Amino acid sequence: MTVETKKRTNGVEVERLHETVNAVKETSELGLFTFHLANRWLDGAKNSSQVTSFQHKGEAVSHSSKFDLAADEPGVLLGADSAASPVEHLLHALGT
Question: Which of 10, 24, 74, 77 could tie 31 with a disulfide, CB 3.0–4.6 Å?
C-alpha cells in the first residue's frame, strides 16, 4: 500500500499554493472573488453578520456551513462589550 503525503509548511500545501499562483498569473480571471455578508444592527453599537456564500468568477459558491459574526464596542466607546469590536475583527483578519 502506498500512502501519498503532501508537504505542508505551517499547514499550507506549498506546492499547491505555487500551482494556484501560477494559474492566476496565466488566467487572471481565476483571481476574481467577491465576498458578501448580511449585516443587521441590533442595539447601540451591537450588530451581527451572517456569511453564507461568495462569488468566484461571477458564480455563487456556498460555504460548507454558515458563519455568524458578532460585533460590539467596549463600554468606554458606548457599547455593551458583548463581542469583539469591528477594529478587533479587522486586526484578526490581518493576523496582527
Answer: 24
